[in-house]
Amino acid sequence: MTLRDKLFRWRDPYDLAGTEDLFAAAMAENAALQAAGCPDYRRILALRGLEALTGISPAALPPIPTLYFKRHVLLSVPESRLLIRATSSGTSGSMSHIGFDGATLRRGGHMVVRMARRHQLLSPRPCHYLILGYQPRRENQTAFSKTGFGFTFFAPALSRTYALVWREGGYRLDLEGLERKLLACARGGAPVRTIGFPSYTYLLLRRLEEQGVRLKLPRGSMVTMGGGWKQFEGQQVEKAELYRLAETVLGIPEEGCVEFFGAVEHPILYTTCRAHHFHIPVYSRVVIRDPDTLEPLPPGRPGLVNLLTPMADSMPILSVMTDDLGVLHPGGTCPCGIAGPWLEILGRAGVRDIVTCAAGASEYLKGGERE
Q1: DSSP character for 142?
Q2: What whole-number distance in Å separates Cα of residue 149 and Cα of residue 76?
C-alpha cells in the first residue's frame, strides 16, 4: 500500500494532527511519482532546485496556478489510462482539462464515503433529487455535471430533475419544471434533496417566495450547494439569506443546508460543518499566500488560496494556486467540535492578483510549458 493510499484510508477524516507526518511523506511520494512521469513537472521542480524530494515540506512544492491548467495539459500517465476526464466550467472563456486514472478514483471513493458518512449525507431512504445544474450529456465534460450526478448516489434516487435541460441544441434554464416537481414532492412522503450552484438555488427560492409558495417538504429533505456565483455575482447574497429562504419556502431548517467547496484541479471534497465552516480534511492542506510575493501568510491573514493534496497519480495537481481569496482560521475557533483549522472563502481574486500570481509563478513554469 502506498503512503497516498494509507492517507486516503485514514479512519477520521479530520485527524490533521495524527496525519501531519503521513501527509508530508505522501506529498513527497507523489511529487517523485509526478517528476518521473511528467517531464514538464520535472523541469518545474528543477527550476526551483528541488531534484531531491525526500523530506520536503509540502508548502515548499511549487504551486501551479489554475490559469496554467487552462492553457496547458500536464499528464503523468498515458492518456489511455484516464478513466474519467473533466473540465472546469469555462465561464472565463477557457477551461482546465483534468483526467483521473483508476488509483486516483479509488482514493477519491474512500474520501467521499468517509466524508459523506461523517456529515450524515448517506441514507438508505430513497429521495427525489433536484439538481440545479446541467442535465448530463456525453458531450458535457464539466466537473459539476459529473459531481452533481454522483451526489445522487448518497441516497437511492426516486427521480432526478435538472435545472439546466438540453433543448434545441443548447442548455435552457427550466425553473418552471423544478417548481412543478417541488410542488408534487411536497404532497408525497419521500425526502427531497437539492444540489447545485448557490446562484440557481437562490433564483429558485426567491422566485417561489415571490409567488407566495410555502412548502413543508418531508423530513430528511436537504438543500446542498456547491460552486460559485460566477455570472450571477451581482445578485450574490449572504448565506444567511439562503438559509432563511430554505426554511421559509421549503420548510428545511438551517441545519438541513450543507455547502461543498472544491475545484476541478483539486478534487477534494470540503463539506461545511454545523457552523457552516469548511474544515480542512486529512486528504489536503491549505496554504494562504501573499498575492505579491507568494510567501505563506499566518492564520487569520487574507490571501490567495493554495490547495495541496497527494491524491492524483495521473497529473501533477498536488499543489494548485486558485484564483480564490481566503482566510485560514486556526483550529479551536469553531463551535462545531472539529479541532482543526477551517477555510473561509472571501471571493475571487481581482485581475491584478491573478496576473501577479501567474507572473510570480512564471519563473518555474517557463521551460515547462507545452501547448
Answers
A1: B
A2: 27
Task: Determine the 3-state secondary structure of 40 from DSSP.
Answer: helix
Dig out the grid coordinates for 366 from the structure.
517557463
**Nearest-angstrom CA–CA distance, 244 and 136:** 30
| Residue 167, burial from CB neighbour count under 10 angstroms (0-12, 13-18, 19+) | exposed
Distance CA 269, CA 267 (A): 7
Q: Are strands 342-348 and 64-65 parallel, antiparallel or unpaired?
A: unpaired
CA-derived radius of gyration, the chain: 21
DSSP category for residue 325? E
User: What does the block give as the cell for 70?
Assistant: 487552462
pTM comes to 0.88
Q: Max CA-CA distance within the chain?
A: 64
User: pLDDT tens for residues 235-286?
Assistant: 677 889 999 999 999 999 999 999 999 888 999 999 999 999 999 999 999 9
The residues near 55 (Cβ < 8 Å, ≥ 6 apart) are: 28
Q: Is 216 buried (19+), middle (13-18) or exposed (0-12) by CB count in 10 A?
A: exposed
DSSP string, 234-279: GG---HHHHHHHIIIII---GGGEEEEEEETTEEEEEEB-TTS-EE
Residues pairing with 279 in the sheet: 342
The confidence band for 351, taking pLDDT boundaries of 50, 70 and 90, is: very low
